[in-house]
Automatic annotation (TrEMBL):
InterPro entries assigned to the protein according to its UniProt record, in alphabetical order: DNA_brk_join_enz, Integrase-like_cat_sf
GO MF annotations, alphabetized: DNA binding
Full protein name: Tyr recombinase domain-containing protein
Organism listed in the record: Planktothricoides raciborskii GIHE-MW2
Superkingdom per UniProt: Bacteria
Length: 520
């Protein structure tokens, strides 16, 4: 071996380098399979003149024409150990990209990745740009362009800043940085907004042509959103969130006070009501009997309009309206003698006047558990009934945000070991609970302000084995406590529910059969 001026590293003989490259090629073929990998070749010369070459096949050429060809890319001198290491790393990177079809949605972006991220070339005429500097310049221009907005700073944060801050501010903007950013995103609507923000940043700095292809390295399907949309919390999860998600203490350990304390207590009360009664966010300011009884005449129609103009139940149930059979007085919700308080929802709501009934799991009373009759405490919202430009009332918007999954949520989701869910999912859970309790489907739909078809097609459609298994487990645990029966694991509950579902899809029949098995 001889010494060369390469940082003190000893140069290897041509035979040593060839053996090292041969081992590398054998290893990469063993790990990824023989076809479609990127291998290395050492030119058969003396060591001082030997060079390294990357060899791979790619289906699209640099002009974007689909033409599978073998490509040879020079990687420099083979007599410098550092260059050999770089060549092996490049071979590994390209093999991983090729075998995983990383650029299948935008094949031509592969060439930018090869040039600027693997080979480290610098684009002509473009000086390195630090991401933080690019964002700051764009922010100033964005705020100036939106100076007529109510709050240009807030608009920046909502539409651009919240997404751009996920980029490494100290890094130089390259295709690799953007590709890594895109691959870090969840597959949901927020990913689309994040990419829109980055694209706007590139457009402002005239970098879209050079770097824009990197944003197309991955196709988003909305799968994560779909999975979240079909998720419905169990009763145990709802209880857990109510008990542990509304902390009266700040992150620094000090107790909340004033508006912050009121807001937390109010949202906890609202959460409990929505879970127990399944009412909508805007309906809290339309309850007629919080403190006073309401007289409903037999001539009055409790309206349950269809959410679908083609709803087949309209003709069956008289356009979704249910006539009260006789005069009745609905007691005040906070009447201490009212043990089964029904909520009277007024006419000027999404689906009109109706009666909403409370539903608790078997053996539980959520009115007591959630302290719903202790005090009426609603979020302190200015003009809660005022409708905004997005057709949502101030009150409804505040509740949806306060009980949502985002940054403005009152719920301390980060401290809870549960899947996040929106306040609207409490209505879905209400439907599932009612079906599991055997409540008449039409009466259940009435209570929520829906026609039967809407309740079936939207709210009851996700009554799947996960929910069934959780419900079966809850029932078994209740019976276990009473009769000291063997504990039932989640896996056993799933197995039982699946075996019963093989016989029938009727949830009520499944529950009945399980109870028969439990009680013998």
């Amino acid at each position: 071996m001889t010494k060369v001026k390469n940082g003190g590293n000893p140069a290897k003989s041509l035979e040593d380098v060839k053996a090292e490259i041969k081992n590398h090629n054998s290893d990469i073929k063993a790990r990824y399979g023989g076809r479609g990998v990127c291998t290395l070749k050492v030119n058969d010369r003396s060591i001082s003149n030997a060079t390294l070459t990357l060899i791979f096949t790619y289906p699209v050429n640099r002009d974007g024409i689909q033409k599978p060809e073998q490509y040879n890319v020079g990687m420099g001198s083979a007599h410098i150990p550092l260059q050999v290491t770089k060549a092996k790393n490049a071979s590994n990177l390209l093999t991983h990209v090729l075998k995983n079809n990383r650029f299948s949605d935008n094949p031509i972006a592969f060439w930018d990745y090869l040039d600027y991220d693997v080979l480290g070339k610098v684009k002509k005429g473009i000086a390195p740009k630090v991401i933080g500097d690019l964002i700051e310049a764009y922010k100033l221009a964005f705020i100036a362009d939106n100076k007529d907005a109510k709050s240009s700073e807030s608009k920046w944060n909502n539409y651009r800043g919240r997404y751009l801050e996920s980029l490494p501010s100290d890094a130089v903007l390259t295709s690799k940085v953007l590709i890594d950013f895109v691959n870090s995103l969840d597959d949901n609507s927020q990913a689309t907004k994040a990419i829109t923000a980055v694209k706007a940043l590139l457009q402002y700095h005239d970098l879209e042509r050079e770097l824009g292809n990197a944003l197309n390295c991955r196709k988003f399907t909305g799968k994560d959103k779909e999975e979240r949309e079909t998720y419905v919390p169990t009763d145990d999860e709802i209880i857990y969130v109510w008990e542990n998600g509304f902390s009266l203490y700040k992150k620094d350990g000090h107790k909340k006070g004033g508006k912050q304390l009121h807001g937390t207590k109010a949202h906890q009360f609202v959460f409990g009501i929505m879970a127990t009664y399944g009412i909508r966010a805007h309906e809290f300011w339309h309850v007629l009997n919080w403190h006073n009884p309401v007289n409903i005449s037999s001539k009055e129609w409790v309206q349950v309009d269809s959410d679908d103009s083609d709803d087949s139940t309209d003709s069956e149930y008289g356009l979704g309206r249910v006539q009260i059979e006789s005069d009745r007085i609905i007691p005040a919700f906070f009447d201490p003698d009212n043990e089964f308080p029904v909520l009277v929802i007024s006419d000027d709501t999404k689906t009109g006047k109706r009666l909403a009934m409370p539903l608790s799991p078997i053996g539980d009373n959520w009115l007591e558990r959630f302290h719903l009759k202790d005090e009426l405490i609603l979020p302190d919202i200015k003009e809660p009934l005022k409708v905004r430009k997005d057709y949502q009332s101030n009150g409804a918007g505040a509740i949806i945000r306060g009980l949502g999954c985002g940054e403005k949520s009152t719920i301390a989701w980060e401290s809870l070991n549960v899947t996040k869910f929106s306040s609207h999912k409490l209505r879905h859970a209400y439907t599932h609970r009612g079906r599991c309790l055997g409540v008449n489907p039409w009466k259940l739909a009435q209570s929520q302000g829906h026609t039967l078809s809407t309740a079936e097609s939207v709210y009851a459609k996700n009554l799947a084995s996960q929910r069934t298994a959780a419900m079966l487990k809850e029932e078994w645990q209740r019976v276990y406590q009473q009769n000291k029966l063997p504990q039932l694991t989640k896996e056993q509950a799933v197995k039982i529910s699946e075996s019963l579902k093989a016989e029938t899809t009727d949830i009520n029949l499944i529950v009945s059969k399980l109870l028969e098995a439990i009680y013998g």
